[in-house]
Amino acid sequence: MKQVTVSRKAHFNAAHRLFRKDWSDAKNQEVFDKCNNPFYHGHNYELIVSVTGTIDPETGYVMDMKILKDLIKIHVEDAFDHKNLNEQVPEFASLIPTAEHIAVVIWEKLRPKIHKEHDLSITLYETPRNFVQYSGPNLNQN
Ligand code: NI
Predict the structure, then answer these.
(1) DSSP 3-state helix, strand, coil percentages of the chain (rounded to 5)?
(2) Is 118 a catalytic residue?
(3) Which is the catalytic residue, given 16, 35, 75, 101?
């Protein structure tokens, strides 16, 4: 079967602080450096949500991009945009809001909303040069 990937770009900006309460100030500063700023700092996150599957013979679509756009709006933009991730987003109450964790959280929020037979991949740019990708757990391992 022909597998085609369709992608939708989105954007949000948000503040975060990378630190561990169980580490000393010195260790947090050593490991997280500028991202440990106690007054927080912001990023312009660029998001790419990719869905891979076969083309529906009736519509010619893998999935309706309007539906994907709305899912991203509701579950990512409305939830994260202009928020302090540590303080205002429940998923990060006890999870360090690194780009890695944000990508996993986005995947976990969207995965139940995407057709079971479709693969989902999240690419998240924290800066124009730093980005992470998550496509779900490796089912061949634990
Ligand atoms: Ni940062």
Answers:
(1) 35, 25, 35
(2) no
(3) 35
Alpha-carbon gap, residue 113 to 116, rounded angstroms: 9
What type of residue is 69? K
Query: Following DSSP, what letter does each residue of 16-64 receive, concatenated?
Result: E----TTS-HHHHHHHHGGGG-TT-EEEEEEEEEEEEEPPPTTT--SS-
Tens-place pLDDT, residues 99-122: 999 999 999 999 999 999 999 999
pTM summary value: 0.95
pLDDT one-digit tens code per residue, 48-102: 999 999 999 999 999 999 999 999 999 999 999 999 999 999 999 999 999 999 9
State how far the Cα of 89 lies from the Cα of 80, in Å rounded to an integer.
7
State in Å: Cα 43 to ligand 1 middle. 6
Q: Which domains occur in the chain, in start order?
A: 3-14+42-134 (3.30.479.10)
Is the Cβ–Cβ distance between 7 and 50 less than 8 Å? Answer: yes
Active site residue 58: no
